[in-house]
User: What shape does this take?
Amino acid sequence: MSDEELKDAAGGPLDRYCDPKTLAYVGMMVRQRLSAIPGVDRVDVPGADMFIVPGFLTRRDCKAIAQVINSRAVPSTLYRGADRPGMRTSFTHHFDRDDPLTVDVEAYISELIGIDNDYSEAMQGQRYQVGQQYRHHYDFFPTGEGYWQHEAVRGGQRTWTAMVSLTEPGEGGETDFPRLGIALRQQAGTLILWNNMTADGRPNLNTLHAGMPVKRGIKHIITKWYRQEPWRILNPVNPPAY
Assistant: This one.
């Protein structure tokens, strides 16, 4: 999908599952909350809300989670229509929503940002080895894509993304936001949070990002996405995730 087509999809007629008023309120609420918490640092970038929490997890916790990802990860997938050769070459483990290893981490993130955990998808873990990457993409759902109607009733639009670095590759593996002019190379245990919507509740094209190719070592992360609607109530059994 071209930028112009994406703008049409992101800014055109929206249904109740991608409601600008609701999404703008969620963005404002989380932004104000995070801005008032000591130890949460706002990233000074134009055009998006982004925060960093150094030392969110201990290295011991990071190591334990990374070991589980290593033992259970399978090749990462994409939505039909979004897949392109070499687009996403990492490995992924889909944690169960009640996994004792991550349930406290998930609750801690939700408490920090002030969104009920029912609105979050189950956490994912990713592993990137040398040469592996996730090319530039958006976390929000373009409402013009074929898979949107399926995702709409599963929880609607994505609001915030939470990502924790578990291991630091020796070289490469940055999280690149080209339209924000920043490439993040975070230490193990660091939490990054960003709003996928604009201040007026529309999908934010400035949040285009990529997991750049790892050049040396291995990169592990865990990722958690929040939705407009209560995803965990609408999906009592973990559905396939991407």
About this structure: The longest strand covers residues 158-167. Residues 20-35 form the longest helix (16 residues). The radius of gyration is 17 Å. The chain has six helices and 14 strands.
